[in-house]
Structures are given as C-alpha cells and as structure tokens.
Amino acid sequence: MRLLILVVLVFNLLCSELPAQEGVKIPVVSPYTGSLASFGEGVKNAALLKAEEINAKGGINGKKLNISLEDDLCEPKEASNVATRLANDKGVVIVVGHLCSSATLAALPIYRKAELAAITPASTNPTIGKSGGGYYFRNVYQDEFQGAFLARYAAEAMKWKKVVVFYETNDYSTGLKTAFVEEAKKRGLKVIGQEAYTSATTDFTPQLAKFKIMKPDALFIPGYAPQGSLIINQALKLGMKVHFFGADGLDDAIMLENKNAEGLLVTTPFLAEAAGTEAKDFINAYTKKFGKQPNWFAANTYDAVGIAAETIAQAGNNRQKIKQILAAFNSPQKAYKGVTGNTYFDKYGDCLKPAFIKVIKDGQWVSAKEQLK
C-alpha cells in the first residue's frame, strides 16, 4: 500500500513539472498609448475577441491562441524597436500590424530581412506593397485608391468646385494628399491651396487664415483625428464657412465628442449598414463585450487575426510556408471570407477593397446619403 501511494505521489509530482502545452502567439502591433491610443483600443478589443472565439472552438490545431499586444506609439523609431524584437523571436511566425503607415514603413525592412510575414489592417501608404519584398500584406485599400475616391466624391457627389488641402508631414497624409490632388485635376476640381503641419502642431490659425482668404467650398484634412478636431475648431473660430472632409484617419470617437464636427464626411473601409450577416454577428458580439460599436480598425484587425490564425493552422511554425500560404490568397475564389468582405492579395500583397462615405449626424457616424459605386 505504501509503495502504491509513493508511486502515485511521484507520478503526480512529475506531471506537475511537465510544461503545459505551448500556445500559439500572434503579436498585434498598434499604438496602445500616446496621441493615437484611441485607434489602438479598437485593434486590441477586436484581436482579443477573435482569439477568444478561436479558442472557444479548440484553438489553432488544438493549441491556445495568445495575442501579444505590442505598443509602437505610431512612431517609426519605436516601430523599429518592436519589429527587431519580434523578428528575433523564433516563436513569432507572423505579425499583425502595424497601424500607422510611417510605423509600417519603418518595420517593413526588418521583417523582410528576417523573412517574417506581416499583415497590416490599417496602413494605406501606396509604397508599402512594392517595398515589402513579398513579406508584407494588407487587408485594407491603399491611399492611391482612397485619395482618388475622395476627389471623385468631392466633385461628383458634393459638386464642390474649389477645395484646399491641409495635410500632416507623414507617409499616410502625404500619400493621400498626392493621390487626391492628382485625381482632382482629372475631375476639374480646383485645389486652390495646400498647407502642411507636423504632429506636434497645436496652433493651425496661420495656415487657416490663408485658406479663409481663398474662400474654398471645402477643406480636405488627410490626417489623424486629434489634429483634425483642433483644425475644425480653429477654422470655425476664425469664421470660416466651409465643409470639412477627410479620410479614414479621422474616423475616431474623438470626432463624435466634438460638436463642431457635425457634418464631417470621411471615407471608411467598413460600414455597418453595408455589412453582411457575419459582420453583423461581429458587431453584436463586439458591442455586447465592450459596450460600444466597433470602428473600422476593429473590423479589419478582427479579419487580420483570422487570416493569421488560418495561415498558422496550415503552415505551422514555418515562416516561409506562412508567406507562401498568404500569397496563395490571390483570387476571389481563394479569398479569406471575413466580416470586411473577401480578402485576397495581388503580387505585392495589396488587396482591392471598396470604400464608403460616412458622416457625423447628431453626434453619431451614419452612412452618407450619396455613395459612389
């Protein structure tokens, strides 16, 4: 009897010292602190929600999916530091991120050298795909499309004749500005003024005063919400009578808190009113869990994590196979079917996704009446 008890004790001791089955780690890189932390909130929530759902169905090949939240502050230097650490971690076989184009462009060569594939749910700068060397993918449209789309919308749907452009000196904003201006010329839309600002700018009145003299129909802000909100406030304080519109960088709750932003038009890659059944299930689950509706950063991240998980399920812990499987999502028939629609990539890792226009009405984002096809 004593011998049996001893055997049982030894067996239990040995079992308690065995390592638990290793999980699967997917880093999700975004600004979780700093001036754009509000963007990162949607990224974080959606990534954790998707992982929770995957784990409830048995994980990835029986292993638990663990989301590693990596903060890059939306700054190129910090993005490089994060990318270097992830590239040197052999347990990382794919990265979801980064969010800001400048951060992605800083991280891109590091991942490429390490042969580590990444998928960004939000970086739209046109140069990313061709610079990725086959290792960078994205499930969002690029700024050449978004900027041209906005120029078309301004000219065709809004019938504006004269606009001014107030852009930030970063990769995202300048890429949008360039695409917008080029398409505006083709559409007969006059860009009568262009001014720039930096991320540290808080007083925009000198440039806005110049714009006021020009009497434009509308002011295009291809930047991020924190500065965009200040620009709108200061423009109205100067007495400017102008329509405000921008790109997906203005799609943030900060704008909803600003009463002066009523009527603001922005592009978005995800519109709840245009979403399918699966998307509506996602919206309901997200809203129930976090007490608010998901923004487009959340929707795209949810799908990006899903793509990463599906890829790992097929390729295992092999970076080269991960890249090959991602590249194989290369047609509508082979697309990943997610809440943002079908995602498939061209030879540069870029994808073709539609854009929608929404507007702030009574303090809420709603679908604009006019949508381009």
TrEMBL record:
Signal peptide: 1-20
Domain Leucine-binding protein: 24-349
Claim: Transport is one of the keywords in the record: yes
Pfam families: Peripla_BP_6
Record has Transport as a keyword: yes
Keywords: Amino-acid transport, Signal, Transport
Family note: Belongs to the leucine-binding protein family.
Protein name, UniProt field: ABC transporter substrate-binding protein
